[in-house]
Amino acid sequence: ARLLTSAFFGAWIEEAARSVRAERDELTRLDAAIGDADHGTNLDRGFTEAVRALGDRRPATPGAVLVLVGSTLIRKVGGASGPLYGTAFREAGKALGEAPEVSPADLAAALAAGVAGVRRLGSAAEGDKTMVDALAPAAEALTAALAGAVREGPGADGAPEAGTPAVGRDGHPSAPEDGRDGHPGAPVDGPAGAAGPDGRGLAAALAAAAEAARAGAEATIPMPARKGRASYLGPRSVGHQDPGATSAALILRALHTVAAR
Ligand code: ADP
Ligand code: MG
Ligand code: MG
Q1: CATH number for region 6-159+192-259
Q2: Got the DSSP string for 144-203?
Q3: Domain limits, the chain
Q4: For residue 152, with 0-12 CB atoms within 10 Å meaning exposed, 13-18 middle and 19 or more buried, which class applies?
Q5: Cβ count near 37 (within 10 Å)
Q6: Could you tell me if the CB of 122 is within 6 A of ligand 1?
Q7: What DSSP state is assigned to residue 102?
Q8: Which residue in 65, 92, 93, 71 sits closest to 83, CA to CA?
Q9: How would you classify residue 153: left for phi > 0, otherwise alpha for psi between -120 and 50, otherwise beta?
Q10: Its Gene Ontology biological processes (predicted)?
Q11: Rounded CA gap, 148 and 237, in Å?
Q12: Nearest protein CA to atom 20 of ligand 1, as residue
């Protein structure tokens, strides 16, 4: 199995910081609609500081990397999301213990522990229009993708269109010049069903987690908010994507990005 070092986790945080920086104004725009227009700047400040803290003193273990990131986010982000993301990373780091390298299954357990920490602190359930709506399905998807690959082998990871005949989406045979061989839905990480306990399998499982987070964030649009500032708006929060669910999806996409390198 592919083992993940503190360098991998440091690369994740750097990629998350890049992505949060790139989407900062969009996150703030979402928070302007149903909150106080600070989510993008809050998170950009926190992740920038987390990257700096890791650069000053890169901890030797994955667990210590995540605990340092969490502590930095708690100190620097503020608002509701600072303590929540900070707790997520700290709990995930504690779950990894002091091992110098961790497995994909350890990563899945750590993500689940992080989500449990967010739920405990914020007492939000799925459907309340918060970051939990992106984080919880991502943690479940990661665990399921890795477990499915181990139990049932290739093809068991729920990848779309595995085993379908070589026809295009419209049901007609692919044109001969179609180099993708009639599998438009195949994941970019490799052939459908590539999830196994190796590096490629981890990337495929994280692709499923990132997609679950993206879909979970999008699903917050029709929800009325029941937690956080947006809940003050009641039904007027309907029709807007939750900023924290959106940033959670970015952070999980960053994890897939570094695993796919
Ligand atoms: P603030 O609302 O204090 O300005 P941010 O704008 O940084 O903080 O973060 C807002 C996000 O925090 C929301 O979009 C939501 O996803 C998340 N959030 C707020 N309250 C909770 C809660 N109780 N549980 C989980 N997530 C929450
Ligand atoms: Mg805000
Ligand atoms: Mg605020």
Answers
A1: 1.25.40.340
A2: HHHHHHHHH-TT-S--TTTT--SB-TTSSBPPTT-TTTT-TT--TTSSTT--SSSHHHHH
A3: 6-159+192-259
A4: exposed
A5: 15
A6: yes
A7: B
A8: 71
A9: left
A10: glycerol catabolic process
A11: 37
A12: 228
**Structure token digits, residue 121:** 């602190």
> pTM for the whole thing?
0.84
Q: Please choose, from the candidates 208, 27, 244, 201, the residue with its C-alpha nearest in 3D space to the C-alpha of residue 103.
A: 201
Nearest ligand to the CA of 86 is 1
pLDDT of residue 190: 40
124 ligand 1 Cβ < 6 A: yes
Q: How many residues does the chain have?
A: 261
pLDDT single digits (tens) 152-208:
444 444 444 443 333 434 444 444 344 334 344 334 444 333 444 455 699 999 999
Q: Whose CA is nearest to atom 7 of ligand 1?
A: 39
